[in-house]
């Protein structure tokens, strides 16, 4: 219900976006085309493009959202989807959004090529916005994705990483796209640099909170709710905020991670141990801190009629836990 209310003002644009995405990524090769169709038919809430459209409404005032904003929203979703295809290959996930992943349905080779193709398509459409500053801002995100994946791979099962290092990695993997898209949307509205930067900070901290909540849900939710296997972060040695906080309290959990869950039931045992600690609550508290920072970042938009929607959006990110 909250989701529907938050995005009510951009609902029509999101419906058009779903149609446009399939047209935009249409590939000449039938296998790539089938992979793209498979990806976008799986749906998803389209949170990232919705944020782009809400920022557009907030920064345009009484003006109608421009076609360039709508195109940026579509580009944002294509970039996000491309990153998921590569993530699923790296993490060897069998399902995503409740359906088989591209590498599972087709092959790893097709999945890698499909991800590359989507990144290439997004870059082409980005260039056609004819706004160099927006191109610079959004294109940096693709570099950040690669940086985040490399960092994650290098610190697998590493108990010594700090919360700051975890936050930095989360920025590269998740928050960078949301932050850059918010700023890009404000740029297309031609507002001053101060407002652009505030929109960037709003997106950054919203994105960090979003990732922390995702990391909590990976532990607390069922595979059916997640649309992907639960506990996959833990299994792959990706030590997230709730795990890092729990490690401070549980020596037994430390031992299981040192042994990289060598026994069949070790993951379930680790999740049970984690739930006996303050790890989940401390992670939630950290997410709430980022939400408060996000809200503080856009105080200058307080007199805008879209401002309450941006606050509700922040609340929606936290409410995914319930």
Keywords:
322 residues, mainly alpha, Farnesyl Diphosphate Synthase, 17 helices
How does the SSE layout of this entry go?
Blueprint (H helix, E strand, L loop, with lengths): L1 H5 L4 H14 L5 H12 L5 H14 L6 H25 L3 E2 L2 E2 L1 H4 L2 H20 L4 H23 L8 H26 L4 H28 L2 H4 L5 H4 L5 H9 L1 H8 L7 H10 L3 H19 L9 H13 L3
Antiparallel strand pairs: 1-2
Describe the structure.
It comes from Balbiania investiens. Keywords: Isoprene biosynthesis, Magnesium, Metal-binding, Plastid, Transferase. Belongs to the FPP/GGPP synthase family. The protein has 322 residues and is mainly alpha-helical. It has one domain (2-316): Farnesyl Diphosphate Synthase (Orthogonal Bundle), CATH 1.10.600. The chain is 74% helix and 1% strand. The protein has 17 helices and two strands. The protein has helices at 2-6, 11-24, 30-41, 47-60, 67-91, 102-105, 108-127, 132-154, 163-188, 193-220, 223-226, 232-235, 241-249, 251-258, 266-275, 279-297, 307-319, and strands spanning 95-96, 99-100. The protein has a two-stranded antiparallel ribbon.
